[in-house]
Design goal:
Elements: H1 10-25, H2 41-46, E1 53-58, E2 83-85, E3 92-94, H3 98-101, E4 107-113, H4 120-129, H5 142-150, E5 160-163, H6 173-176, E6 191-193, H7 210-231, H8 234-252, H9 263-269, H10 273-286, E7 291-295, H11 306-330, E8 337-342, E9 346-347, E10 359-360, E11 364-369, E12 377-379, E13 381-382, E14 389-391, H12 396-407
Parallel strand pairs: 1-7, 1-8, 4-12, 5-6, 5-7
Antiparallel strand pairs: 2-3, 4-11, 8-11, 9-10, 13-14
Helix pairs in contact: 1-7, 7-8, 10-11
């Protein structure tokens, strides 16, 4: 018996070709991805068009500014760790970050973040969406906005990826399982991966041969697109977008397999899930993704044994940020790739009874690099004990205005929402942090 996949009948080929051409005419995306789209050099290069991209290192739980970017050694609030000189004359950071000290000329650090929410749920909303919730409307998360404005929706490579070692959720379930894309629609939500660093159920079953698979998808797509167009159904549009995403994932599944990356790279970044995901983020950005968010569970929420926990956590962050920025620069990608490292707030200047630092949003720090950010700049400052911002307080709106401008997105632009109230990329008449921006 001859398998259909091996059939050489011109009649069979012509019939199938005409059907696919008709489907394409009806607005169906190409099914070439099933034939190894990502392995075709010309098309593979098309997915890597030059353009601004972003990697967000999301330090869930909120790291301490005292043990990272704004040390206060020798004070009762500073803790046991010292500070070290950096590649910027006169600028010192925590002694737990010797690698980042050597690349401070490439980093933009804000020491004067001052935001309102001091609880995780609210802080995560404000620092990932740029604005406090306004029920019943759901503002899209930063990655969804960047994917919508800068991404290639027809690319087989997912434009917004969330890499998380706890993809099933943890204490912050509203963050993990929330409505990521909000009013932009499900097609701009993230592809989520984690745990074993692979996405499940994207391989074609052995019981279905390649041509059968393509024909079935072409028929499904033709009929569902026709229904979508005839009924003007948003639900059908979301359904079709989900199928398109899975089809794209099938073609680029190797991008999510860390075993394909050089062992030396994996060793440089370190064995932890956060470190390995950061390397994978670089790989995804290099191969066509637009925004990759690297989360790390909630290890920074150190209400107990603050110093002992940060003594383990900060060196990993130090190495990851150093490797990532250095790799992007060596690959000629840093100029177009914005790297952000932050959590939802900072930690208290004082220790609690369990020798931990609690939540503190009045004065905290974060760092950025590349993608339109001027390196070698430290913005703002705090008092000698770290209780208050004394210079150039930066809130979430100014931060997002700066991020958007660095990426070439108009922060004052209105969302196109004909049936909803007026919303802007960034609300209020705020200005970006000009000293942090190139040009």
């Amino acid at each position: 018996m001859v398998r259909r996949e091996d059939c050489g009948s011109p009649e069979h080929q012509a019939h199938r070709r005409l059907f696919l051409q008709g489907s394409m005419a009806a607005g169906v995306a190409s099914v070439a991805s099933f034939n190894g789209l990502f392995s075709i050099p010309t098309l593979a290069q098309e997915t890597k068009k030059r353009g601004k991209k972003c990697i967000l290192l999301w330090l869930c739980g909120a790291p301490s500014q005292f043990e990272t970017w704004d040390p206060k050694p020798g004070t009762i609030t500073g803790g046991p760790f010292g500070s070290i000189a950096t590649s910027l004359p006169g600028i010192r950071i925590s002694s737990l970050m010797p690698r980042c000290a050597t690349i401070m000329d490439k980093l933009g650090v804000i020491r004067s973040m001052s935001t309102e929410p001091s609880e995780h749920f609210q802080g995560i909303d404000v620092l990932t969406r740029g604005e406090a919730p306004r029920p019943p409307f759901t503002r899209p998360i930063l990655g969804s906005v960047v994917a919508e404005r800068l991404g290639q929706l027809d690319s087989p490579v997912p434009q917004f990826v969330l890499l998380d070692p706890c993809p099933e959720g943890n204490e912050f379930k509203s963050f993990k399982a929330g409505n990521w894309a909000g009013w932009l629609g499900a097609e701009y939500g993230p592809v989520r991966s984690g745990g074993e660093y692979a996405i499940a159920d994207i391989l074609r079953p052995e019981s279905i041969d390649r041509l059968d698979h393509e024909d079935r998808e072409a028929l499904r797509s033709f009929l569902s697109r026709k229904y979508q167009n005839d009924q003007r159904s948003q639900a059908a549009a979301g359904y079709n977008a989900a199928f398109d995403r899975v089809r794209g994932l099938m073609s680029c599944a190797p991008l999510f397999d860390l075993e394909t990356l050089p062992a030396a790279d994996r060793e440089r970044y370190g064995p932890g899930a956060f470190a390995q995901h950061a390397l994978q983020a670089r790989h995804l950005i290099e191969n066509g993704s637009t925004f990759v968010m690297v989360a790390n569970g909630m290890p920074w929420d150190n209400h107990v044994f603050q110093h002992e926990m940060h003594q383990m956590l900060v060196p990993e962050l130090d190495n990851v940020l150093y490797q990532l920025v250095t790799d992007l620069e060596q690959r000629g990608m840093l100029e177009d790739t914005l790297v952000i490292a932050m959590g939802e707030f900072g930690r208290t200047p004082w220790l609690n009874e369990a020798r931990g630092r609690d939540h503190y949003s009045k004065a905290w720090s974060m760092a950025m690099a590349g993608g339109g950010i001027r390196g070698g700049v430290v913005v703002g400052g705090t008092d000698p004990m770290g209780f208050e911002v004394t210079e150039n307080a930066i809130d979430n709106r100014r931060l997002f205005a700066t991020i958007f401008k660095a990426l070439g997105i108009d922060a004052k632009e209105q969302y196109d929402l004909p049936d909803l109230p007026t919303f802007h990329r960034v609300e209020g008449n705020v200005q970006p942090i000009d000293e942090l921006l190139i040009g």
